[in-house]
Amino acid sequence: MNELETKQKNISEVTSKTSVKEKLQIPYAVLCELTHRCPLSCPYCSNPVELEMKSREIDTETWKRALSEAVKIGILQAHFSGGEPTARKDLEDLIQHAASIGLYTNLITSGVLVTEERLEKFYDAGLDHVQVSIQDTDPENSEKIAGYKGHAKKLHTCGLIRKVGLPLTVNAVMHRQNLHNLKNMIDAAIKWEDGELKDALVFNIANHMKKNFLSWNKDTVEDVVILSHLEELSDGKLKVAATQLPLSESADLMRFKHKNGNGPSSNHSKPRKRNRKRY
Q1: Distance between CA 23 and CA 52 in Å, rounded?
Q2: Are 107 and 31 in contact (CB under 8 A)?
Q3: I need a surface site. Which of 49, 137, 175, 194 has the fewest CB within 10 A?
Q4: Which range, 9-18, 78-87, 234-243, is most confident?
């Protein structure tokens, strides 16, 4: 028996001893909260009340080791968050390391500190996807919620992300301070050009409609109900793409109702490619 066959036999023996329940408990992604530093002060942020100082943040090499260990237990994705992860000067290095060990990489950002030059560096390092938070369609209310005058910068950053060639998802957390603008968000989505970005926004809106329905009505709701409401509110102009259905599970939407809306955007791993297609 050669070395490869021996390894395969050992893996098979370990797998056979692992129960189905244990296999299902292995997460597919790791959320790396790199820093608590952030220019925004959104009231729904999941950061703790007492924030870690910059000097006490986990260093680069420790994060790299953690990512490598995550791969060993079967993790497929790394989501870089904060705070504002772009406040870290070593972010490119962390992205490159994650990409080099085969992790799908996602950046969750407010977008207010990002430049086109740095986005190019993220892309070259191996970044696969970006999520940008938008607090409201109304600039004044958006900046009031965020505690920062950066609405225009966020929209500009979204354009730069697409220009660089990275896939983009918009995070729009719906709550009592902006729920009155849900119809405006739907109207804004109608005006967007058809494509991946619009599909992501419509899916996000539908999920938040579902979450709000669950918060005020009942424990479960069929997706068809939410989709019919979305279609009615948009005069039949918005529909969730078939490839994105079903919507998020009710239990998953309600589990983090006191957290912010940031989170993984895909449950599919992506093989590492040096010459990746620009979208």
Answers
A1: 34
A2: no
A3: 49
A4: 78-87
Angle between helix 116-125 and helix 91-100 axes, rounded to 10 deg: 20
Tell me which residue has tokens 């490159």: 96
Question: HEC states along the chain?
Answer: CCHHHHHHHHHHHHHHHCCHHHHHCCCCEEEEECCCCCCCCCCCCCCCCCCCCHHHCCCHHHHHHHHHHHHHCCCCEEEEECCCHHHCCCHHHHHHHHHHCCCEEEEEECCCCCCHHHHHHHHHHCCCEEEEECCCCCHHHHHHHHCCCCHHHHHHHHHHHHHHCCCEEEECCCCCCCHHHHHHHHHHHHHCCCCHHHHHHHHHHHHHHHHHHHHHCCCCCCHHHHHHHHHHHCCCCCCCCHHHCCCCCHHHHHHCCCCCCCCCCCCCCCCCCCCCCCC
Torsions phi, psi of 48, nearest 5? -70, 165
pTM for this one? 0.70
* 17 within 8 A of 23, measured Cβ to Cβ: no
Q: Are 154 and 111 in contact (CB under 8 A)?
A: yes
The neighbouring-strand residues paired with 105 are 78
Residue type, 277: K
Strand 29-33 versus strand 129-133 pairing type: unpaired
Query: pLDDT tens-digit profile of 108-143?
Result: 999 999 999 999 999 999 999 999 999 998 999 999
Among 132, 211, 138, 199, CA closest to 172: 132
In angstroms, the CA 209 to CA 231 distance is 12
CA–centroid distance for 127 within its chain = 13
